[in-house]
Amino acid sequence: MLGRGAARALGALRGVRGGAPPARSLGLSRRLLSFEKVLDKDHSLPKPCWGKDMRRLFDQFTKKCEDGSWIQLASYEQISAQRSQDFSAFIHAYFPSASEVINKEKLSQAQLFTRGFEDGMGFEYVMFYNKAEKRIVCVFQGGPHLQGMPGFFHGGATATIIDATVGMNAIVSGGIVMTANLNINFKSPIPLCSTVLINSQLDKIEGRKLFVSCKVQSIDGKILYTEATSLFIMLEPKKKKYDLKEAVLNPLPA
Ligand SMILES: CCCCCCCCCCCCCCCC(=O)SCCNC(=O)CCNC(=O)[C@H](O)C(C)(C)COP(=O)(O)OP(=O)(O)OC[C@H]1O[C@@H](n2cnc3c(N)ncnc32)[C@H](O)[C@@H]1OP(=O)(O)O
């Protein structure tokens, strides 16, 4: 196991990241990222299964991070064991009746839906956040297990990655939120295994309501595949306040 100091330093490396992927550029990531189980694997760093478009866009956006205007969001299957517990406790306190029917034994197998696929088969994505512009751009390469109509993505898979992107935009602005409404217009089918860009924008906040819209486009911007608008509601903490925004921006414990 890694000592506390090293783990803290690694946490800083893996949290909000501007510039090139720091752990990787320091030559540390392979060794350090494998010190714990797969839960500590940052899925938003380049992998062999990424195609050249995904890799090129990752490099382009990473370059934009150098002046601090954009930051790359790390992505784990879970935030951290401790933070997951705190988060779960908060959510379960908010929805006590739902908590009663949750199978507690199965909870140990829980993982983030979009990160539950074998590398390259499902959702490969990395998100970049521009605070000043209230934007999150998601570079998404969908794998062959996301097929709907032959040769194209399933609409539910497209809806999922849209929800993840607009949801992350709402989280970094509002903390713990839930999707209340998601409207999607599918304009053109997305070819299976292609890489696309999802551009999301926080349009406004009214009290507990956050309105986020997005467009899914081809990487050259010529094809508009999908448009969506969404409404997220900030949960009102009834018991303990839990800072999900801080947790997604700094996924490992301090
Ligand atoms: C384990 C560790 C891993 C952690 C890793 C985390 C990081 C990785 C994150 C990735 C990002 C994923 C993002 C996915 C996010 C989901 O997919 S969430 C799952 C899908 N959503 C749900 O299940 C939500 C179900 N709905 C609900 O629980 C409740 O309806 C809500 C949304 C919490 C709202 O309930 P409420 O808090 O009681 O609020 P309520 O008083 O009803 O409404 C508040 C206001 O909103 C309005 N409103 C509510 N709903 C609507 C609606 N549908 N339409 C219009 N207006 C509405 C109300 O009219 C009201 O307006 P005002 O009267 O104030 O003007």
Descriptive account of the structure:
The chain has 254 residues and is of the alpha+beta class. The protein has one domain (4-249): Hotdog Thioesterase (Thiol Ester Dehydrase, Chain A, Roll), CATH 3.10.129. 33% of the residues lie in helices and 24% in strands. The protein is globular. The model is unreliable at 1-38 (pLDDT under 50). Palmitoyl-CoA binds at residues 78-79, 84, 87, 112, 163-164, 167-168, 178-181, 207-209, 231, 233, 235, 248.
Feature tags:
9 helices; binds Palmitoyl-CoA; 24% strand; 33% helix
Topology:
Blueprint: H1 4-14, H2 22-25, H3 29-33, H4 52-64, E1 71-73, H5 81-94, H6 96-101, H7 104-107, E2 123-130, E3 135-142, H8 155-174, E4 177-186, E5 195-206, E6 209-218, E7 224-234, H9 244-249
Antiparallel strand pairs: 1-2, 2-3, 3-5, 4-7, 5-6, 6-7
The chain binds Palmitoyl-CoA.
Palmitoyl-CoA binds at residues 78-79, 84, 87, 112, 163-164, 167-168, 178-181, 207-209, 231, 233, 235, 248.
* Residue share in β-strands: 15-25%
Largest sheet: 7 strands, antiparallel
What is the annotated CATH architecture? Roll
Number of spatially distinct domains: 1
Give the % helix. Answer: 25-40%
How are strands sequenced across the largest beta sheet?
Answer: 1-2-3-5-6-7-4
Looking at the structure, the CATH topology is Thiol Ester Dehydrase, Chain A
Shape: globular
- Round the mean pLDDT to the nearest integer and report it: 81
Query: For the record, what is the CATH homologous superfamily label?
Result: Hotdog Thioesterase
Low-confidence stretches: 1-38
Task: Summarize the model shown.
This protein is of the alpha+beta class. The protein contains nine helices and seven strands; from the N terminus they run ααααβαααββαββββα.
